[in-house]
């Protein structure tokens, strides 16, 4: 009797081992076939600059149509506290984009010595100003200010950055809200590039509250609801995810979205053949060969593009989409406020 039980158990173990080996072989064959079929020796580049230009052209027409029905042009006010050069550059890009699509804009420049109370008073005045549709405070703010308090001071209807806690909460509940521009840009990139996300495995690397968290929420949420989300199975990795585990999760992912600001974090060995890689990270480094500075992402672009199916460059990927979607949010705010004022 005992020998019979041992024989059965041994046979079952053998069958399990054989099944696992066959499944592993099948997976390898599928990956090789997939890579060969789609010629993944070089990934297709998702051109964020071109897609952003399409969105801005669409917005330009929509704004003209909006004004043709008797509405004033939408208006965006940006507040810049201090003299951070990167912030100056970002705000200038946003103002140029606003002019391009037909949105009027202004930049309120405040000294770094401005008190938090003074800033909140300015925001309150803009909240009550019916000629202003969108308000943004360029982050980061000086250390003596509470960033969360500043973001929450902007009324939800004019919060074009989508950072007010009520807009964040509505987004997390899969309800219509102002969605932060960078996450919205990532989702729009995936949609317009025709990347299938339904039921796919996605890894989001990073857990920042303004970028990575909204991306993860939008990637996994139900596409039937108000946010029109992506229905993927999402894994979130961050600074305390062990390197071996990060590599493991990424290697199983159909879609990798990384937003850490760590140059070269995602390498060729971590990417499944044919995967889609979206690089949100951006860091200025000095090229050791030329001594000149350049912008790079989280992804080892030249290596990863040899195995990925789709990839975004840095610069020219997510960055232009962020600005385009900020204009989208501003126009949305203008339309919503026009309806409220009419009623």
From TrEMBL:
It catalyses: (6R)-5,10-methenyltetrahydrofolate + H2O = (6R)-10-formyltetrahydrofolate + H(+); (6R)-5,10-methylene-5,6,7,8-tetrahydrofolate + NAD(+) = (6R)-5,10-methenyltetrahydrofolate + NADH. Belongs to the tetrahydrofolate dehydrogenase/cyclohydrolase family. Its cofactor is Mg(2+). GO terms for molecular function: methenyltetrahydrofolate cyclohydrolase activity; methylenetetrahydrofolate dehydrogenase (NAD+) activity; methylenetetrahydrofolate dehydrogenase (NADP+) activity. Residues 180-336 form the Tetrahydrofolate dehydrogenase/cyclohydrolase NAD(P)-binding domain. It is found in: Mitochondrion. The keyword NAD applies. Gene3D superfamilies: Leucine Dehydrogenase, chain A, domain 1 (3.40.50.10860), NAD(P)-binding Rossmann-like Domain (3.40.50.720). This is Bifunctional methylenetetrahydrofolate dehydrogenase/cyclohydrolase, mitochondrial isoform X1. InterPro entries: Aminoacid_DH-like_N_sf, NAD(P)-bd_dom_sf, THF_DH/CycHdrlase, THF_DH/CycHdrlase_cat_dom, THF_DH/CycHdrlase_CS, THF_DH/CycHdrlase_NAD-bd_dom. Its main location: mitochondrion. Keywords: Hydrolase, Magnesium, Mitochondrion, Multifunctional enzyme, NAD, One-carbon metabolism, Oxidoreductase. GO terms for cellular component: mitochondrial matrix. GO terms for biological process: carboxylic acid metabolic process; tetrahydrofolate interconversion. Residues 46-161 form the Tetrahydrofolate dehydrogenase/cyclohydrolase catalytic domain. It comes from Musca domestica.
